[in-house]
Write a structure and sequence with these properties.
The complex is a heterodimer of chains A (93) and B (407). By secondary structure, chain A is α+β, with helices and mostly antiparallel strands. Chain A has one domain: Beta-grasp domain (Ubiquitin-like (UB roll), Roll), CATH 3.10.20. Chain A has 3 helices and 5 strands. In chain A, β3 and β4 form a beta hairpin. With 407 residues, chain B is of the alpha/beta class. In chain B, 35% of the residues lie in helices and 16% in strands. In chain B, α11 packs across α12. Classes of the chains: A alpha+beta (93), B alpha/beta (407). Chains A and B meet through α1, β3 and β5 of A and α5 of B.
Chain lengths: 93, 407
Amino acid sequence: MAEVTVTLPTPLAASLGVNKEIKIQALNLRELIKSLGERYGAKLTQKLLDQQGRLNPIINIYVNGRNIRYTGELETALKEGDKVSILPAVAGG
Amino acid sequence: MGKTSHLECRECNKHYPLERLYFCPECFGPLDVKYKYDKIKWTKSSLEDAARNLWRYFDLLPIEDKSKVVNIEAGFTPLIKATRLGKVLGLKNLYIKNDTVNPTFSFKDRPAGVGISKALEFGLKAVGCASTGNLAAATAAYAAKSGLRCYIFVPKGVEPEKIGHALIYYPTVIEVNGSYDTANRIAAQTAEAYDIGVVNINLRTYYVEGSKTLGFEIAEQLNWQTPDHIVTPVGSGAMLHAISKGLGELERIGLLNSSKVKFTAAQGKGCAPIVDAFRKGSHFIEPVEHPNTLAKSLAIGEPGDGLYVLRKLRESGGYAEDVSDSEIVDGIKILAKTEGIFSEPAGGVVIGALKRLIDEGKVDSDETVVCLITGSGLKATESLTPYLPQPLSVEPELQTVAQLVVR
């Protein structure tokens, strides 16, 4: 198991009543989201995944700055000390 | 009480007060500003004497305190009947919305003006943006006018003219080693970590409202009619979505009989994730990690409003076209040669896409078509120079010049 730091966007952390930065153990993104759901409620998992269990298309997750859509999506492996950022898919203008 | 009503999630329809929210905490959906539409009393004549800039539409813009409006006289740009270009292309009713004449030479003066004004209303001391170039200058100009600190995030490879233009307003320009999407991600994380209003990220809900004034103006300049077809350049897709929202609002308050219009989204080959999804009939946008197109202002591989553009294209019976670099250059040249308008590559994308639509029989010759030309070619001269003829160099003698003059 690798311990990673997950950063949530402020409005999401506020709505969950949790810190923006969370330490959590997981081997890959799928496991990480499952663990987040176990810790903070299934509702969080429902926000992050669509009904088919894929990453919600209006969310971007980055591992050490790289969008997981380029690294194997939810199968992206995690290692000790990785920094995971969850952000709404807001780009351009 | 104010004119705005609430924020509404585009995905789950949940309502929120008009606060510094930039996405729905319930479902991550984008938030749209809703107004007290019944209280808007615009008539065709009531707007006649309004200011000839985007703030003429103040009642449907999300600023409550008029003293917070930052005005650099952007907007209310010309809608030109493009008779010469129309003749070349075989269209009888072709119009160019010329947004190159804005104060910082692109349409970004519209959303940046609303975003920075809202930052002042929220009491922020610092603003910024992630930009492919045009928004950089627009945000920096408004920040200069309002006295706010300004942080601009740009990717490597932006046209030097656009960087130079932004620098003259003295913001902090941070060139990020990576694509636009990387710069955008860092800007988003900065916005989260510090109290900075990054207009197209954590002020996005309000910022995008500025772009709908393009739709208001087109309708007003066509004497309160919509065109049949709008061909628009698409990067993130926020502008297209905002124009559609604006037209819908005009219908809702009774100024348009119908807001129906066909949209075509135009992107450059080499970064056309929305066009690709449209053609595949997909409801997902496959991101482009390494964009490669002359149209750098549209080189957004992870378009924030991509899904919503797809919906609008399909609902409106519109199209999506991607054009090559050589088609972009041809488009810029023919627009300049026939209408005297010098566009940046994004405008070449639009004209190239229109030519495709015509070639493929998707536009009738008597349709009213509006092409959005959203940024000036002066912002991209270096990248266009290789495609232009050289000047004729002569000695200052009439005899020599005479040989060059067509009689």
